[in-house]
Amino acid sequence: MNKSTERRRCFINRNSKDFDNPDIQEALDRYNCRILFNFDAGFGYIKNQIQII
Predict the structure, then answer these.
(1) What is the pLDDT of residue 52?
(2) What are 2-52's pLDDT values in tens digits?
(3) DSSP of the chain
(4) Which one of 6, 12, 45, 52 is separated from 39 by 20 to 30 angstroms, measured CA to CA?
(5) Cβ neighbours of residue 34 under 8 Å, at least 6 residues apart?
(6) Residue 14 near residue 36 (C-beta atoms within 8 A)
């Protein structure tokens, strides 16, 4: 699957204390998944990915 058709994912969780970890980030990167620690940022990311203005 090439990058243009690959699905993008995000993991939104306010618990950065437990999830802001390089090992977790590396695991999520393998699935093209971005981690976000703020729900507003997550909502913005999702809107951007589906191109809603």
Answers:
(1) 66
(2) 454 578 899 999 999 999 999 999 999 999 999 999 999 999 999 998 886
(3) --TTTSPPEEEE-S-HHHH--HHHHHHHHTTTEEEES-HHHHHHHHHHHTT--
(4) 6
(5) 8, 9, 10, 11, 28, 45
(6) no
